[in-house]
Each structure stands twice: as structure tokens, then as C-alpha cells.
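Batch manifest, entry 17 of 40.
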Amino acid sequence: MSKQVAVILSGCGVQDGAEIYETTLTLLRLDQLGLGYRCFAPDIEQHQVVDHRRGEVAEGERRNVLTESARLARGEISPLRELEADEFDAVILPGGFGVAKNLSDFAEAGDGMQVLDALSEALSGFHEARKPIGLMCISPVLVPRLLGPGIAVTVGHDPGVAGAISAMGGLHRSCGVEDIVVDFENRVVTTPAYMLATRISEAATGIFKLVDRVDELMDR
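Output type: C-alpha cells
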């Protein structure tokens, strides 16, 4: 039986949900490596809906995070509350502002943020079982709240987000777009992705390295 990876989404679209390219590249690499995967998302209302053409909040429009995430997963998705760590070998979180708006309130609260209870419960199972956890783009900012202090992560070179990670007790490591940071003790792998990427090929290099390293850690 192939190894199984849970992929947690936060909507559909960089400005109010999961980053589409990051999600697609993650699923592509998992498939190329012969790894099974299942997507999950919280069954909650989005914090806000953004018109991606204009870059403006669509006032009065309401959408559901699970329903929107189903667009990325081609309908094959489950509510986050159903994610059980003992059924998977690893978990990966793509980025996008849905991480900072739907999975947490980082977009508004900064280093005083709170993380969605369902996400905290799901990730704690992977961490306690020492199963690999991959996070990209803005999602590494969740690590100090989700997994505890002292874990090395990267969001690239962004001083504001790096400072927030440090303020919450995390360890930020500067990193290029095509590379990864690995905390071997905690089995956490991170990459900047679209925190730095200017082209999809740049994002792909780091994301593929992240998935490859998660795959390697599953064997250890």
C-alpha cells in the first residue's frame, strides 16, 4: 500500500483561500512520486471574498471554505474535522491568504493570532506521532501556535512575517525561493514558494524539494 499524505486547503484563490499553483504543484509532485493523497478543508464560512481581478473585497458575498477548496480537489475532499493522523503518513499545507484569514486570524492579529481549533487538533496528532509536516508560503507562520516554540521554519526573507514568527517563539531561517528549511528534530519542512516566487517554475523547484523531503522523512 502506498504512503498516504493529507493536504489541507483553505479555500480557492491566493487572496482569500489556498494558492492555486502551490496546491496544484504539491498534488502533481505527490502523484509523480506515487504517493496517495486526500484533501481536507474546514467546513466554515470564508473570512472574506476577494475579487481576484480587481484585488478588492467583494462586499456582501459569502462563500464556504470547504466548498471553494473542492474546486481545487476536483470534488474529492473531506471536512477537516474528519482528518485522523493515524490514517496518513504525512501532512502538507499549501499557502495563500486563506491560511492567514480562514485557518487563522494572522492577517488581522499578527503575532497575537489564534489558529482554527480543528487545524490545531489535526496537526497535533501528526506532530505527536512524529509524522512529517510540510508547510509553504505563509503557512509556516502557524508553526509556533500549532506545534510549539523553537521549531525552525522559513517564509523566505519577509521581515514582518519573520518577526511575527520570532515573537511567537519560533525560529525563522532566511531561505531562497528554490530551497527548503528542514527541522529534522520536529520533522517539519518549509519553503517560501510564492512569498518569493515570481514565476511558477521558481515555486515548483522549492515545492518539489519539500514534497521530496517529506517523502524521505516518511521512511525514517
